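Our platform keeps sequence and structure together, in a single record for each protein. This encoding replaces a full spatial description with a residue-level series of whole-number codes. We quote a single record here, exactly as it is kept in our systems:
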Amino acid sequence: MISWPVARATFRERGRSGLALALAAMLAVSSLRSPPGQAFQGFGQALLILFTLLLGAGLLADEIESGHAQLVLLRPLTRADWYGGRFAGAALVLLGGLVLAFACSAGWSLAHGNFSASELLVLPVAFLWSAAWLSVVVAVGAAARGWTNAGLVVVAGIGWAMLMGLTRLASPELGALMVTAGKYLGPQQPLPISQLEPIAYDLLWLFGAWLAGVLLLNRRELARRRT
């Protein structure tokens, strides 16, 4: 369910974005003095989230609202193939940024003689987590307009955090339950790698959000209507 010509076009489109290139460079620089196991935590994690949101923002809506998607879908191409191609192209740009940051981090560790072979697992695990979030953002974009898909995800996250804080002030026990429940309301950060549960959960979010996005797109009216 991936159109690779669409994926290549999306990769070129998103990969040439000045802001995307700037965030990828910042992620790489922030990883220079960190071992791979810590490169995508703290400030590095925040940059990775911004990078993911940027790549997913308006990924579908830009093509739909410009009318380009309608032209592409005149070919023998299903909506699921087109959706998969758009997602895969953005995911490849995301992977490229992660590879660059990981190379900087691993190079710094090798230069200081403290690189461990087990840290090679950090790259695929970090990519899985960020790709799962990208899948969520793109799935929201199957129903949202413009770049509001990324905004909705951010607002939902901030709203839940505020609700948890208020609940903890009113009832520490209920607040603790909400904190636990909050871990399951989106992909889980699997770093540092200590158990397989977050990895399996991120796989579920990756493919579950993909399926939901395709279903939403199939219900969306793509024809441009004159007002």
Remarks:
- The first helix runs from residue 4 to 15.
